[in-house]
Amino acid sequence: MATRHKRIVATLDTGAAADWNDDHISDFTDEITHECMLIGPAVTNCYDTAQTSGGSAPVATFEDDHGWIKFSTGATTNQTSCMRHKFNAAAGNITYINDYPILTMAINLNAFHTAGTVFEFGLMASATNPFTANQDGAYFRVKDNKLYAVTGTGAAETETELTDITLSQDIYMHVRIELNATGANFYVDDMETYEERLTTNLPDNDLTIKIHAISVNNVDTILRTDGIGLTILRVK
Questions:
Q1: Which of these, 1, 51, 138, 141, could form a disulfide with 148 (CB 3.0-4.6 Å)?
Q2: Could you give the CA distance from residue 70 to residue 218 in angstroms, rounded to a whole number?
Q3: Consecutive sets of 10 residues in the chain, 236 residues long: mean pLDDT of each?
Q4: What is the pTM of this model?
Q5: Hey, where are the domains in the chain?
């Protein structure tokens, strides 16, 4: 996760102690930062994979000379590979819109069919089944070879294409979602300027980190990630 600094300075600029202390001293009064680099530990240490259906449950793997968590649906239509964050050693929600959650993920969309919905990843209600319409949450969706920003209440959703983003097989990108009571900002690679801000159909349920992949047209859908980070406020 990015660290928030009080002042932007040039490389080698000295600055004053007051510019840096809040960033370099552990301070538990304002927020909690949870980071998972996903290199080495079993996925099930922090994530539940029970929503996987037909496909392979996400696992830690070393591929292309790199450590990943890999999602693979298998080459049969409508199989899924899914994971959701645990709370107290079981699947459960960990945040809410008023926590001002900021989720950052490093995502490799390794292989997928270019027609239909194949991926959803971001903040969603834990108990909701993958790829259910109008899910409570703020998340990214890959559909028809395009990337979308989505917000949902459980009864309705807002889906907006991120027209500046061109997808391809094996694309690697950093994505971020900043969510609060007035809107959801969606970033792709550029973490200073959001690609889209959605202000309608904001989630009204508790949320957790979820990643879903589903196979279309008998094509194996594969996603890999090597980094997930979440920052939330300690107090509302």
A1: 141
A2: 19
A3: 55 64 59 80 93 97 94 98 96 96 97 98 97 96 98 97 97 98 97 96 97 97 96 81
A4: 0.89
A5: 32-233
